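FIELD: query
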Amino acid sequence: MQKDTARPLAIGLVVLAALIRITQQWNFAPVGALSLFAGARLRGWRAWAVPLALMAVTDPLVGGYSRATPFVYASFLINVWIGTRLRASESPLKIGGAALLGSLQFFLITNFAVWPGSVMYSQTASGLLACYIAGIPFLWRTLASDLFYSGLLFGLHAWLSRKVVRSERVVAQAA
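FIELD: result
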């Protein structure tokens, strides 16, 4: 088990992802992947604070507030929890699976949050289904960005922790 210490490499990659979020376009943002990465590579309160702080600071810059905002934030915290399951892993398959799971739960939660009280969708099961169907193009972009940025963050961390900051290297534990 690793100590709850500052991790400069992981924190630097978090800052990089935050800067990318400000310049995001076409719903291709690193926040889901960053939340997953924070859960996997940061310890204690830092892992949970990162996505909340990132969203609170950057939402005013990108106009990200809506009535679904609390659900968006909660979804990113679920990604942190999913990421905590990756603390002893650098497996691309496990990381990719976690990114996929994070994308799916984000889609389900945030689209459900849009539906109640919406003027676009009836407050029926068919209205909810229509809301989910309308969100599918966003799901594909979210999934693509989560997979891409997860690969980038976890890959850079794995490589740099072997070459530069060896104290942050993830050593897989025996199952």
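FIELD: remark
The mean pLDDT is 86.
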